Amino acid sequence: MAELLRTHPLEGWTTRFERLPDTVRITVEPYVAMVDVRLAPVGAEASAALGVDLPTTPGTWVPAGAGRAVWLGPDEWLLTSTTEAPEELEARVRAAVAGLGGSATDVSAQRIGLRLTGARVRDVLVKGCSIDLHPRVFGRGSSAQTLLGQAGVVLLALSDAGDDVLVLVRSSFAGYLADWLLDAALEFTPTPDR
Predict the structure, then answer these.
(1) pLDDT tens digit string along 51-61?
(2) I need a labelling partner for 112 at 20 to 30 A (CA). Which of 49, 148, 153, 174 fits?
(3) What is the model's pTM?
(4) Is the distance from CB of 61 to CB of 128 less than 8 angstroms?
(5) Cβ neighbours for 30, distance < 8 A, ≥ 6 positions apart
(6) 125 pLDDT exceeds 50?
(7) What residue numbers bound the domain in which 179 lies?
(8) CATH number of the domain where residue 57 is located
(9) Left if phi > 0, otherwise alpha if psi is -120 to 50, otherwise beta: which for 148?
(10) Alpha-carbon distances, residue 88 vs 97, 104, 176 (angstroms)
């Protein structure tokens, strides 16, 4: 059987992203395995089975081995892994939560990641996002499901300074969001001397 080559929906944007100044950098993140976990209630037994203390505070995420555990709702989390294949992560998590009445679904193809870094990241994001992204409110470990422009996204604060944010967006909206971000960053892009 022929192996399908996986192409990233934002392959064509790399050159355009590279033209941005250091104050607003956009990097296309490599694919990662993602599993949506439904499980209630969460306790020590679930944490032991999964090998991570799932965040129980709304709007937060925690490191989870070679990935992250993101709170999505009272009984829903997104688990990611940079080292496991999607089917391996799903099988491992499903085995861990099945006996606790939980479920695990591979959603790896659903979202891709864009990493925004630089001193003007927050200034770019607030142009199309209605949540408070000030570092004292949205510091490292914070997450939010929101609209950015017209695209549904999950934002993860990777620093306390507000200058490092991971944006998870549905693959089908990736091109739209890439164009939107480039447009929003335009005012921070110096024009060449004439």
Answers:
(1) 899 999 999 99
(2) 49
(3) 0.92
(4) no
(5) 82
(6) yes
(7) 12-30+110-188
(8) 3.30.70.1520
(9) beta
(10) 14, 12, 31
